[in-house]
Design brief:
mainly alpha, transmembrane, YlaH, membrane, YlaH-like protein, 0% strand, 73% helix, transmembrane helix
């Protein structure tokens, strides 16, 4: 993933004395695709996965396609706030799941 690291947009103001925020931003730029991959998996399972288990080859294909999407999002993340948008999507899906849960238990 060196080509993604080359596209890093964050430059600390004082490279000699890095703050915790500077260190975190540099780490997040280095592992941009993996962070997005984890966020995509969370969004998939919160919003789109059903309770039916898929066969193992379909799961492997799903993870491969999610990683390809994460690579595309990593390229877009150089100029757009994709990681932040994914965190907002995760927060919205968690809120929806929490609100729907009592409704489903009340019906049963």
């Amino acid at each position: 993933m060196d080509w993604i690291q080359i596209a890093s947009t964050y430059v600390p103001t004082n490279p000699d004395q890095l703050t915790a925020f500077d260190s975190f931003r540099m780490w997040a730029d280095k592992y941009r695709a993996w962070i997005l991959f984890a966020e995509l998996i969370i969004v998939y399972y919160l919003g789109f996965a059903t309770r039916i288990r898929m066969p193992i080859l379909k799961n492997v294909l799903l993870y491969i396609l999610l990683f390809v999407g994460a690579l595309i999002f990593a390229i877009l993340d150089v100029q757009l706030p994709v990681k932040s948008a994914m965190l907002v999507a995760i927060a919205i899906l968690v809120i929806v799941k929490v609100r729907i849960k009592p409704e489903q238990t009340g019906r049963k």
